[in-house]
Amino acid sequence: MRISVIGCGYLGAVHAACMAELGHDVVGLDVDEAKVRKLSQGVAPFHEPGLPELLARHVASGRLRFTTDPTQIADAQIHFIGVGTPQLQGRLGADMTYVHQAVDTILEHAVAPQDGRPVLVAGKSTVPVGTAEGIAARLAESGRDIILAWNPEFLREGYAVGDTLTPDRIVYGLCEDRAVGNRAKELLDECYATQLAADTPLILANYPTAELVKVAANSFLATKISFINAMAELCDATGGDVTRLAEAIGHDDRIGRKFLQAGIGFGGGCLPKDIRAFMARAGELGVDEALTFLREVDTINLRRRDHAVNLAEEAVGGRLVGKKIAVLGITFKPDTDDLRDSPALDIAGRLWARGAELAIVDPAASHTLRERRPDLNVPETVEEAVTGADVVMLLTPWREYVRLDPSSLISLVNSPNVIDGRNVLDPHEWADAGWTYYGMGRGVSA
Ligand code: UGA
Question: Please, are residues 80 and 4 in contact by the beta-carbon 8 Å criterion?
Fold first, then answer.
């Protein structure tokens, strides 16, 4: 099939490359010339395992193209919208400008195929519920045979290629007019034939349900993380160990073990902004009470960052001025170079504001960090970062940091304090090696 993907950020670039992998002829459209240039050379503009290989293969084969020229999308049968919906400046809601611009672009440039089938617009961006109805109405008003489906995306950064090629479910939000809905379904079925043949569960829904599935899923995940972080607060107040608690409750498969990792909380370009946009939309719909619990989820999450800063102060016995802190990991989670709403970056900023001298290492984001903050000390190696440190803080659980050897690092530091912001180190191993270990809801071991 001929496919266009509008917006080539995390979602769009991965989707475009994966659609090419499925055998489709794909053009990705973005306004960012630098990004398009990189993608056109088969180079990933961000760190995502598996993506460079797909880009290189399919750009070389000619099955995948990237452009800033909207006329190039004209003959696509399906136009996927994968643009960003960032949080509005100073407000909780989502900025829908790019989604509406994408619809404008499609209406201006899409050309109906000759085979009697419609042009399909498939929305993938995370949007406030009700957006799809509005877009469908605009498409209908154009008087052309252009129809809409809402097809939310559930990929995780770091696993984006696998999540797109072998998703755990596919959702089609279809027009309630069955005839229109069936025409859209037929095109999506053809597009996702490989996944459907592999028995990927397919959920058919109306537009609002499909839009809600996405924000409901992210809200549930955020709630799960804040729940376990609330339990971490209880553990800290009582001498409990939240990692054991999570393990024990997680064995109940009604609860499940995933997303029960207590620590410095969730960040990234999705969970925080999505729960806030969801609350804002509920307010507009007059059902804000239904989501007031998400305000608490957000508050608990942000409190984890305060707690990490407080632990650093506790470790140095008071004021942070002039204390050297080694920060291991600055991205919002491992296997990405994404710094959007990174809890680690926020905590580092607060430590710096309190006068601490920081040395920050990260396997993927050092370069960006040096560019953005030339005033910060961003050494190449963990050894350089921890040399002379009063506190070592592990804030993003990159594999190489989880495996660090406490015995070999101890001779480099000024004071052997380690704060395990993600509860991924073994407290006994670090304490036995001579460190004072601070966990997040698992006490202090020395
Ligand atoms: C999230 C969802 O997991 C995806 O399903 C969704 O498609 C995506 O948002 C999106 O809306 O596009 P992502 O932002 O890549 O994916 O990151 P997650 O893996 O969900 O992690 C989010 C944050 O929660 C990270 O900061 C992570 O460190 C933190 N986290 C995760 C915890 O603190 N504890 C956990 O147990 C799990």
Answer: yes
Which regions of the chain are under pLDDT 70? none
Residue nearest to atom 13 of ligand 1 (CA): 156
Please report the atom of ligand 1 found closest to the CA of residue 156. 15
pLDDT tens for residues 196-221? 999 999 999 999 999 999 999 999 99
Measure 323 CA to ligand 1 centroid, in angstroms: 32
Residue type, 357: E
pLDDT the model gives residue 335: 93
d(CA 138, CA 117): 19
d(CA 81, CA 63): 19
Torsional sign, CA 337, 343, 347, 353: positive
Fold type of domain 223-445? Rossmann fold (3.40.50)
226 CB near ligand 1 (under 6 Å): no
Tell me, yes or no, if the two domains 2-200 and 223-445 fold the same way.
yes
- Structural domain spans, the chain: 2-200, 223-445
Beta pairing partners, 65? 27
pTM over 0.90: yes
Q: Which atom of ligand 1 is nearest to the CA of 268?
A: 14
Question: Active-site residue numbers?
Answer: 270
Specify the fold of 2-200.
Answer: Rossmann fold (3.40.50)
Q: How far apart are CA 189 and CA 83, in angstroms?
A: 23
